[in-house]
Amino acid sequence: MTGVTEFSLIKQYFTFDSEREDVILGVGDDCALLAPPANKQLAVTVDTLVAGVHFPLNTSPADIAYKSLAVSLSDLAAMAAEPAWATLALTMPDSDHDWLQEFSTSFKESLKDYGVQLIGGDTTQGPLSITVQLTGFIEAGKAMRRDTARVGDRIYVTGHLGDAALGLKLLNIHDLPDSTIKGACVKKLNRPVPRVVFAQQAADYCGCAIDISDGLVADLGHILKASGCGGRIYFSQLPVSKAFRKSQVYLNQFNYSQMLLAGGDDYELCLVASAHNEEALFALAESTGVLLTHIGEIDASTSLSVINTAGEAIAVNTSGYEHFSDE
Amino acid sequence: MTGVTEFSLIKQYFTFDSEREDVILGVGDDCALLAPPANKQLAVTVDTLVAGVHFPLNTSPADIAYKSLAVSLSDLAAMAAEPAWATLALTMPDSDHDWLQEFSTSFKESLKDYGVQLIGGDTTQGPLSITVQLTGFIEAGKAMRRDTARVGDRIYVTGHLGDAALGLKLLNIHDLPDSTIKGACVKKLNRPVPRVVFAQQAADYCGCAIDISDGLVADLGHILKASGCGGRIYFSQLPVSKAFRKSQVYLNQFNYSQMLLAGGDDYELCLVASAHNEEALFALAESTGVLLTHIGEIDASTSLSVINTAGEAIAVNTSGYEHFSDE
Fold this sequence. Notes:
The structure is a homodimer of 327-residue chains. Chain A has helices at 3-13, 61-79, 97-113, 163-170, 179-190, 196-202, 216-227, 242-250, 256-262, 278-287; strands at residues 23-25, 32-34, 40-50, 82-92, 117-125, 129-139, 154-158, 208-212, 230-234, 268-273, 292-299, 304-307, 313-316. The first copy, chain A, is α+β, with helices and mostly antiparallel strands and 327 residues long. In chain A, the strands form 3 sheets. Chain A has a 7-stranded mixed beta sheet with strand order 8-10-7-11-9-12-13. In chain A, helix 2 (61-79) packs parallel to helix 3, helix 4 packs across helix 5 (179-190) and helix 5 crosses helix 8 (242-250). In chain A, a hairpin with a 5-residue loop joins strand 12 (304-307) and strand 13. The first copy, chain A, folds into 2 domains: 3-139, CATH 3.30.1330.10; 154-323, PurM-like C-terminal domain (Phosphoribosyl-aminoimidazole Synthetase, Chain A, domain 2, Alpha-Beta Complex). Chain A is built from 10 helices and 13 strands. Chain A is globular. At the A-B interface, helix 1, strand 2, strand 3, helix 2 and strand 4 of A face helix 1, strand 2, strand 3, helix 2 and strand 4 of B. Strand 2 (32-34) of chain A pairs antiparallel with strand 3 of chain B.
């Protein structure tokens, strides 16, 4: 795209009303100018979604826009930060009006839902990819981190696991006897709900969390490694949706265990907290409408074990899912 | 890339020593945690470079790394901000060790040169593109903006114009009688020097600036539009390098006027300031080793005119260079 096209394109599709008082100068100059809050820290995350890698090529522009923001919101949630400012670097093969209009409308809606303002960006010509950087605010010392798990702490997850991975598999299956299965799982794949409100309050009871974007075992593995401890999770306690259960009845060609343990793209949170705070955490989950499940404990070992349905502890490789075999 | 590859890749190539005290938590958690300075505003810019669009496919990893940071540093310079934090979203077809090592070494070196810390990023698999977001600090009210040019102000540029555009043309010419021409122009293309130090001090004398990334006429046009005024520039006063002059002697196939007026990628600054401050600005330019040239004036018209070598005023379309014809 030439400077011309880019300039008018930004004006047409990505100049939204200014709503935040801390944005002194938004889209349209060499830089945005921002007034950071006094006495708070900034939490910053950046994520790129590449067409054909992070979403199927036929994903709708509205879903792509939603997800490109949701994955970064989930990172802010994992630190318990309050979302504030976004930038959008959009690379696309051509400037298709309908595509841009749908993308822009959905992106704007999501920004509004979370009180986030688009402060800047870049539009370039090339294979479709979307990079969103989000900045949030958090009180000093209050962020949930990966390196604060302690032996004896309990491990929790929000929501259900495996639905997004199942949704990806179901995209190409068109003869399911129960259409609600595909609908629910594809929705989880395309429209994951970041746990933003729950997480900000959860930080009162929990100092350790991560978002499950690479799969439970890999992401919990990051916590164990950063905190220098081990852990065990109970396979039978992993939270499973109705759609996931129904799919197991109809379709036996999938590795459901792997989806639960290692399926990426769920964007739920894995939290580690002292048992003393369990009651408060569950009360908060209920009041914010979030399913929270106790799935295991941190222990003094040096690895992660999955306690299978037969009660046996199986050590798993937390560095990735390639090494899993089906149960 | 799987989470595995990505995690070890970030650790191996993009975990640099922490140097800034305002970085509470750098690369390696869901978000970076930053302590913004009290009583300053943040200036934020993001730029994407796409292989084959923003740089030729055979550009060296070291040059790509340098430029991906330089273009954003130039945006900070245009606002007079002090560079502080960077994120890097790197999309690449595969994780080639040699490529990554060279890219990482060069990126690290540039960060160090400007006192910037890499605080986070994302590595993904896909066609090569690099998105860098930079955050800098600036005192409230001190930023140089696009919308503050006033009738009677003078227009200045730093450095030489057109060298980067000429460099791009010369890449495929191998039989130049004077090799210093190509060397100088390709260096300007691949290693533009952002005017970071000069700009921070220039803000004492100048409230209006833009970086010339899309070409002088288009970028000065942004200033005129944002400020609601017109302007004129004197073609004969446009600063031209020795290499550019020599090239005009040897190679007559290029549109040199267009390169000067509309060649992108120079990453010099165009500044607009009151004539009262000219002496101070020139003294600053000299003390910081930056060439500064007075090239025109802001006037009460509604367009930009180029006064050609015959002394005639030619109104030019500031929305893009497609409309220029050679003189």
